């Protein structure tokens, strides 16, 4: 299920991904709790949702323990995602003493036919009137159709090439591409890159700031943090993977994927 928010942002409920509509390179993945929270705000668009209601729907109904603090963190994560996508974080309103509400234009993301179906009561007049409004020049529509098909073909080809490039880039990574740059409380921080062009302290300072921005918990349990970045055109993408490690365990218990897109 997908929703179009404010006519610009596309939100995929099943994956928790939010992006600028038509720009896959801008996609951000929300945490599970932030994704569930955004869904509740969307389906109740324009309504004031009390804090207790949101904590129950987002956390308690899914077997987790929620609080006002965790609710505030999830709200901040969604607003930051809006801001990073160039949209107004103020679309989510704080109602003092009550809770939150979403004030945005919401649409189900579906493909709409170019011409609406005529009424069965008076089919001939309505069809004629609609056709004249949408297609004042039918010959122009016939000319534009091949152009639209060509544009769709070019966009699809570029998307496949981008995906193939990313897959090849990950295939070329090995253990020598992972560099430990330091620690932040119980978090061990690694840089994932072919080369370290700057001192470890340079990367460590930047990663600590990102952990603080995303409210990553490095105090209560140990975790491994993996940071990578790449530049594309006028954009800078930062990717952070946080994997928590229970004591005396050989495998990760839970991993979070965080992504930041900056630029103009």
Account of the protein in words:
- By secondary structure, the protein is of the alpha+beta class.
- The protein has six helices and 13 strands.
- A five-stranded antiparallel beta sheet has the order 4-3-2-1-8, with no helix packed on it. Strands 9-10-11-12-13 form a five-stranded mixed beta sheet, covered by helices on one side. A three-stranded antiparallel beta sheet has the order 5-7-6.
- Strand 9 and strand 10 form a beta hairpin.
- The longest helix is centred in the middle third of the chain and has 34 residues.
- About 9% of the residues have low confidence.
Give me some keywords for this one:
alpha+beta, 264 residues, five-stranded antiparallel β-sheet, five-stranded mixed β-sheet, 13 strands
Describe, in short, the structure shown.
Strands 4-3-2-1-8 form a five-stranded antiparallel β-sheet, with no helix packed on it. A five-stranded mixed β-sheet has the order 9-10-11-12-13, with helices on one face. A three-stranded antiparallel β-sheet has the order 5-7-6. It is built from six helices and 13 strands. It is α+β, with helices and mostly antiparallel strands and 264 residues long.
Mean pLDDT: 77
Spans where pLDDT lies below 50 across 5 or more residues? 111-116, 124-135, 169-175
SSE topology string? EEEEHEHHEEEHHEEHEEE
Strand content: 25-35%
Helix content: 25-40%
Our measurement of the CA-to-CA distance between the termini, rounded to an integer number of angstroms, reads 29 Å
User: Main β-sheet: number of strands, strand sense, barrel status?
Assistant: 5 strands, antiparallel
Number of helices: 6
Radius of gyration: 23 Å
Order the strands across the largest sheet as they lie in space: 4-3-2-1-8
Shape: globular
Based on helices, strands and strand pairing, what is the structural class? alpha+beta
* Count of distinct strands: 13
